[in-house]
Amino acid sequence: MLGYLLKRLTYTVPITLAVTVVCFLLVHIAPGDPLNAVAPADAPAEVVEALKAAYGFDRPLPVQYAKWLGRAVAGDLGRSVATGRPVAGEVLSAVGNTLLLAVVGGAAGFLGGTLLGCLAGYFHKTRIDRVASAISVVGVSVPHYWLGLLLTIIFSARLNWLPAMGAGPGGSGNWTWDLAHARHLVLPAITLSVIPMGIITRTVRALVAEVLSQEFVQALRAKGLRDGQVFTHVAKNVAPTALAVMGVQLGYLIGGSILVETVFAWPGTGFLLNIAIFQRDLPLLQGAILVLCLVFVGLNLLVDLIQPFIDPRMRRN
Amino acid sequence: MSVTALATSSAAPPVAATARSRGYWSGVGRRILRDPLTMGCAGVLLLIAAAAVLAPWILPVDPYKTSMLHRLAPMGSAGYLLGADELGRDMAARLIHGGRLSLMLGVLPVVFAFVIGGSIGILAGFAGGWLNMVLMRSLDVFYAFPSVLLAVAISGALGSGMSNSIIALTVVFVPQISRVAESVTTQVRSLDYVEAARMSGASAFTIIRAHVLGNVMGPIFVYATGLVSVSLILGSGLSFLGLGVKPPEPEWGLMLTTLRSAIYVNPAVAALPGAMIFVTSMCFNLMADGIRSAMDTKA
User: Fold this and answer.
1) The pTM is what?
2) Whose CB has fewer CB within 10 Å in chain A, the N or C terminal residue?
3) How many Cβ contacts (< 8 angstroms) between chains A and B?
4) How many Å apart are CA A54 and CA A72, to the nearest integer?
């Protein structure tokens, strides 16, 4: 097992490095000059040159990359071209909000998906299965940004029960655990939960149905175990794969919340990305993407590392 | 009857590859034709696609013509069957025309990724060794990006526009399709009949064309059909963010975002473009499921 853990850990190093290269190159595949956001179009050549030198854009690419990486490792992601504030600070304060939304939405989706999936798998090819499968198809087919709009129309515009925008009263971006803030979390979290719910339902349904068809289940039944006890055995067999899928899905929620955050003006990384793209603030764009990818890579690593602790079969070989 | 067809097809020796594959594909076709849900979804999709292609003949109304007097006209008002948008443009015409760009955003990236990813995967799987290693490990890098983030990052860097959205989505799907293609090709490559073909002096190209392609296209195709709805939702999502199709083109995601401010005035009209995305993507999903189970001889 130690070998597996070490191998998995080592594998993360080249991937992380490659991710930094891609994030770095993103700025350079962008058409136009990265300085367009700061320098006016009619700026004299020597001003442009001075700005280039100030931002380090006059050096060869590998040198720029090495310098950028060195600073990034030290926690310095440069300054936002638009606001002049350090990118690292802006991204970190936004990451907290995104994580909060992703964890709450993910938990709701995983809970609902596991429940529906178990029901559908246990009552395979019955009416219950068909209803659960229909819900899961809707979950994976619905454009979640549209669902967010529908929820806003119903619960904010019509019923006026829940707020439609922001993470707190009066547009406050700082999250605190109280009812006024929690009310802001409800609609975006529900919106974010439908895709993982659909996917987890499908996964768990297939896994449960497959495990139930195996011979050891028949043996357990023949031995006289009650349904509940049989299901404990099934759950133990389903858990490792289901948890692995959930881990990946949580990563997708963190990296993919930009659409939902935009609909609800949620002050997270997605919202930040949106600003960065439209102000062509490339250091901010680069920094936000880098941090999100590192979170994603870290999460995938974590899921793989805890696998052997959940699944005893992996410990043996 | 289909049970016996299944039994014979799976029991047939691999040597009779051509005879078996003809039987297999007609069996798949029969099973799809007999599946009411899949055929229903295919019908709905055909209807939407036909309406989009024939839009000017079906509804001879200019989808770009604005009218200040009819801004946000409710559904069913005179001359506006499905109401009008925030600039008084006819919603019915825009929804029908919008199918053109939205369907392209759903289908084209998957087709491109199918060709590119399929070639990379088959090449990697068939060549094996270091080439496989280099190709597949470099594609692994893309798995370190959540797909929405990757699409947003690429189109954010390239700038908005329909073609940039298609490029971004293609880049998102290529690694996924390559991985599927590589794994099925690796399985097929080690089968006895491929070895026999190699022994009898067939060139690599001949082996791929005659023995590998027919056996790997099915699984790759099934996987790709499942991606169309993802591509549609993501592509329209890019337009929704302002990264895709530019105004005033009619496109469902873009229409949804420009109508966002109207949710307090005319929520039914504002929700319509999203309903189109939803129905289309659900039909693609259900059809992909139908094709998958029709091609799965084990079930």
Assistant:
1) 0.86
2) C
3) 129
4) 18
Give the gap in angstroms from C-alpha A47 to the nearest C-alpha of chain B.
Answer: 25
Residue with the two structure tokens 């949804």: B256
Work out the number of other CB atoms within 10 angstroms of the CB of residue A224.
7
A201 and B CB contact within 8 Å: no
The complex's ipTM works out to 0.85
Contact check, Cβ <8 Å, A143/B278? yes
- A105, A111 in Cβ contact below 8 A? no
pLDDT by position in tens, chain A (length 317): 788 888 888 888 988 999 899 888 887 776 666 666 566 667 777 877 777 777 677 778 888 888 888 888 888 888 887 777 888 888 888 888 899 999 999 999 999 999 999 999 888 888 988 999 899 999 999 999 999 999 988 888 788 787 777 777 765 556 677 777 778 888 999 999 999 999 999 999 999 988 988 899 889 989 888 888 888 888 888 988 898 899 889 988 888 788 999 888 888 888 888 888 888 788 888 888 899 988 888 888 888 888 888 888 777 75
State whether CATH 3.40.50.2300 applies to domain B3-56+98-295.
no
Mutate to test the interface with A, among B241, B246, B293 (most CBs of A within 10 A): B241
Q: Across the interface, which of A18, A137, A259 has its CB nearest the CB of B240?
A: A259
Q: For residue A13, what is the nearest residue in chain B, using CA coordinates? A: B141
Chain B partners within 8 Å of A16 (Cβ)? 144
Domain ranges in chain A? 16-73, 94-279
- Taking every pair of Cα atoms in chain B, the longest distance, rounded to a whole number of angstroms, is 77
- What is d(CA B145, CA B153) in angstroms, rounded to the nearest whole number? 10
b/e code B94-113 from CB counts within 10 Å (16+ = b): bbbbbbbbbbbbbbbbbbbb
Place of tokens 């429940």: A115
CATH superfamily of domain region A94-279: MetI-like (1.10.3720.10)
* Residue indicated by tokens 């996924």: B176
By the CB < 8 Å criterion, does A141 face chain B?
Answer: yes
